[in-house]
Predict the structure.
Amino acid sequence: MPNDILFYIVFLCQVVLISYYIPGKILERMKLVVEKYPPSSYPKLYPVSIEKIERGQRNFRNMNAAIFITGILLVVAGVFTNYEVVGDWDNVLLNLFFFLQFFPMMVSEVLAFKYYKLMRNANSDTTRKAELRPRRLFDFVSPRLFGTGIFVYIAFILFTFSAYPNQFYLGSKATNMIAVLTCGNLFFTAIILWNIYGKKLDPYQSNKDRNRQISLTVKSLIFISIAATVFLMISIIVDVFYLDHLIPTFLSMYYILLAIISFRTLIPALQIDDTDFEVYKEKSATN
Amino acid sequence: MEIIIDSGDSVPVFAQIIDQIKSAVLSGDINPGEALPSIRQLANDLELNHNTVAKAYRLLERDSVIQTKGYRGTFIHPDARANSKVDINAWAESRLNEVIKQFRKSGVTDSEIRIAFRKAMNNNNL
């Protein structure tokens, strides 16, 4: 029972943070941008009508509200029925619920890409600017943080094989976990390289803002990689010491940690005073 | 240090890149030994075809304004400042002007000059 109480508290925090607090902050920022930098003065920022933008914001708010209410109902139902969270099926449900919570953000990201494409298509200016210096990984992240990520990954491999000593073969639990983590890290590496060397999504964004965004993304992904590695280590410990009943709680804590890392690195991007909006005025030079 | 190109300008984009890098070297905004962005990075940032930037870099390397050091990247040549003052296009134009002047003095017509020039340009043995 104490384990379940702990789980429901942690799960409630997950529901509130990911489906209420963070979406609330994002919507607050969007509203502030429209108020402070309206389409009449900053037309380049709005390749679509303000009504369409407001409709998108309403959909985002409603999706998150529905998921938030679902989460609260799950907590209430679980507490009042004394539902014990112990089985593998509970882990599956937890993972599914997290993906559900993440879904509005995923949709927002896809729509953001489309939004930037509309901005690029609407950009009729023929001038382009670029910095005459190479962008390098360590311009955006300290070697120490990067080194920590590498160290944790190598430590995980060694830790896994010491916890499962007879599993040094393909298809084993140990090698599968290492393969999953490696694929994840390769995926993050691809995103980092694309951010550093790829095309600029926002055609008007200043170099300073772009570099700041790259730095946020790189640091965020490295923190997420470290968090994922640590979580996998904890799940190995839980498995080895037969503490399976704690997995749902740890899983929920992990999702909270992911959300905090992502949000913490998102906060500077939400500070609109640090962003150069002058580039979106009609007569300013584009980048 | 920023580079600004205008694809609506009559000057070809690769020539704008070359001129601006040379100007930056001459003004001291960029110094010998400093690194330049890779072709891919510059092409992506300026929203240009990769080959356009590659052409600019190739010509700058020909003029010893930049030097490529394999995987380490592209850098400003140690003698870039002196080499940036050399305008190979102006030199080619002035030599051609001299030759055309001589031909005209000798009575060769402009269309004969053009035919000869075209043949020379198409001559693979040169």
Remarks:
- The helical segments of chain A are 2-36, 50-80, 88-122, 143-163, 173-197, 207-240, 247-270.
- Residues 204 and 287 of chain A are 5 Å apart (CA to CA).
- The beta strands of chain A are 127-131.
- Chain A has a mean pLDDT of 88.
